Amino acid sequence: MSRSVLVTGGNRGIGLAIAHAFAEAGDKVAITYRSGEPPEGFLAVKCDITDTEQVDQAYKEIEEKHGPVEVLVANAGITRDQLLMRMSEEDFTSVLDTNLTGAFRVAKRANRGMLRARRGRLIFVASAAGMVGQAGQANYAASKAGLIGFARSLARELGSRGITSNVIAPGTTATDMVSALTDEQVEAMVQHAPLKRMGRPEEIAAAVKFIASDEAAYITGAVIPVDGGVGMGH
């Protein structure tokens, strides 16, 4: 049965791959984007998830056209990499506001319809960096680690209502965000992975699609790494 799916930051990279995976399965897919031209084939809603009013307006449009959101993939995120001694407070707070508080905003708004329906899937895209840390990414790693505590708290809070809450933790993935790094930086990151390669967005999307499926109905509060082995043991 076709479901109403929302992927935040679904206009490129991992988010776009996730949106395609759900669309190919026959779901009604809405995406949010903040800038640029959105991809075709989805209900694209311009929305800055750091603005609660914009989040609410986006949901109203999606609910009107697709019905209440049944699967939320909180994927939107930013980086502002810098060593701690050079990191400004704005560098730190802006990353947390988008990556962590932004996830809170979209999950809280989705929760309304999921509670009413007594079912739903909350899926948060974190990062291996949130488990193992990353030099120069204290802000980003903190925001992604925060998603784990947030998702697990929701798993306990909402499980009795048939709502699952899980985290997907990608490692280094071939996206525009990674293409901004130097070859030396990418090579160093790849060498940390036992599989000695970057992940593909489609591999992350496959894990997201599974955790949203009926087969995963008894999985909640999980952190599922798709990272080539970088975060094993965490």
Automatic annotation (TrEMBL):
UniProt cross-references to SUPFAM superfamilies, sorted A to Z: NAD(P)-binding Rossmann-fold domains (SSF51735)
| Natural source organism | Streptomyces ramulosus
Q: Which UniProt keywords apply?
A: Oxidoreductase
Protein name as annotated = Beta-ketoacyl-ACP reductase
Output the Gene3D superfamilies linked to this UniProt entry: NAD(P)-binding Rossmann-like Domain
Task: Provide the Ketoreductase domain boundaries.
Answer: 3-173
Q: Keyword Oxidoreductase on this protein?
A: yes
Family note: Belongs to the short-chain dehydrogenases/reductases (SDR) family.
